[in-house]
Amino acid sequence: MKTNSLAxxxxxxxxxxxxxxxxxxxxxxxxxxxxxAVTTFDxxxxxxxxxxxxxxxxxxxxxxTPPNNWxxxxxxxxxxxxxxxxxxxxxxxGPTLRSRSLSGDxxxxxxxxxxxxxxxxxxxxxxxxPGDQRVRIAEQVYVFGEGxxxxxxSVAVAGRLSEVEENLAAFRSQLIQALALAGIxxxxxxxxxxxxxLFPLSRVEQSLAAIRSGEAAKLDGELPTEIKPLQQELNALxxxxxxxxxxxxxxxxxxxxxxxxxxxxxxxxxxxxxxxxARKVAEQADTMTTQVNLYLDRARMAARIGVIGRVTExxxxxxxxxxxxxxxxxxxxxxxxxxxxxxxxxxxxxQDLEEMLxxxxxxxxxxxxxxxxxxxxxTSGGGPNGASGNWLEIRVDDxxxxxxxxxxxxxxxxxxxxxxxxxGSGLGHSIVADLAYCYSGKFELTxxxxxxxxxxxxxxxxx
Amino acid sequence: xxxxxxxxxxxxxxQLVSALTDAGYAVDAxxxxxxxxxxxxxxxxxxxxxxxxxxxxxxxRVLEQWRRSERxxxxxxxxxxxxxxxxxxxxxxxxxxxxxxPFHMQELLARVRAQMRRASGHARSDIECGPLRLDTxxxxxxxxxxPIKLTSxxxxxxxxxxHHNERVVSRTELVEHLYExxxxxxxxxxxxxxxxxxxxxxxxxxxxxxxxxxxLSKEGDEN
Lengths: 463, 223
Description:
Chain A is α+β, with helices and mostly antiparallel strands and about 475 residues long. Chain A is built from eight helices and twelve strands.
């Protein structure tokens, strides 16, 4: 999952929510449970305190009698953690009574630690009792005896605190386990929800890649209602893009037809007339022809900018052009060889590849003595200006006279024609260079092994 | 030699007719696809110049239909659409050559000559037969290096015979290839021109093969 993704954002938000809410919920539940547990424990101690007082007060007018009528075995077992104690206050003599479980030890008293009584005159405190056990003690001052023998006693009952603490610890551990499980479950569900929810988007992503690579023409498939408008808009955009390009091409074609026939008439008419006016007309018509050709080429190229997702198989294009050239140059009896593995595909318009291969092969045929070869192959790395990735390398060689070393050394600049003044004559390579540049490709001329010209094109390869 | 021009632009059509007639060809003109198709289908042309953007029937379709009915005369496509896809479509439809508009008339004439030569099996632009030499570029005939003065009809007849030398050419074939469509085919002008030619070149070179036609042979051949 990439950090800059919708899935990551959704997951992090959900995870943060779970991480905050679950501990808070846990804390609330635990607090409530602890309150209940402690209250129950205190109620139990209070109950024993009441029983001890009433039992000790029952038969004696001169002082407390040992309570023994309550049937709670915990007070009988030595160091059980449950104790009671009745002790005279104010330094007065009198019996100090203790439960058997105290085994003669004394209880620490809240009154001795300056703990104030509550509204029921009971003091509460947690202490370390006999046998180093932590105990919770409730103490109440009670007057036993009547008349002169009336005397204040401290009556205390202790309960084993670890009983509550163990209970709370067990509950806390179970609560944490349950909440952790719930948290993991929630995160898993969230993850599934995100994957399931965003699955149509990843399908859109794949479809877009297919469009870009030319395997699909539009965004297909049944998509959820939320992204259906996006699909419709995108398809409309692709269609409109295609239509604009087609329209521009048609206009360019029509313009070519509309201008070139009258130009042909003008040129032919003027050339048949020796007058100065006719000469001028012929000269200007020739200039117009050059300009028309130049700007028609440019317009065609401009119409291609922004066209996406076109893939062209190289071999059929090469074959059809060679077939045409074999007819045009049949008198020269040129042997054409075509070396291009099936499945080698150019990432771009068929018409552009036709234009590039057509110009290169036509030029090679014009100059070749007997042989013209076309080699096309995929290469990895070594693209134009050191660009990496997969490229298509096309080489057209002939065994003609080739270029002079100066011409080879001269770079073919974009938009500049080697044959600027004569349309249809000269090398016709600048259109190839312009097109290659449009595709971020490369075009260069070298001397071929056969002695003639070798034209090399590097173009994007469709994978 | 007979040429058909199928071009809807009247001015260009007129210019082509004029230039080809001046070059010594018998020229028929059509201004739309249907008319062009009909003429090409019924008349024996040596070369056809066919525009691709034609009214009524597209030039490429005209060409395809000719080829389907085995009309195999050389066809030069003339078009303003000069992309390679258009060229390939034209050549695949059965064209023999391709000229993009605007063109120089001389270039078109050279292409027409090349197609004529190719069709009659000659590789060079000049054709020789005994002492006679036909320069198709300049439309001139020389005998032993000396130019012969010929009228346009005489030139057409001799040029056709030289293109097909050593072959018997019937009178009908000559009429069909040397005259425009509306020529009166029953007239005896062929005989008249053969007679005139025999006075300008060694008379034995054009032999009359009774019941079959004429044959141009190198001087001194038997039969």
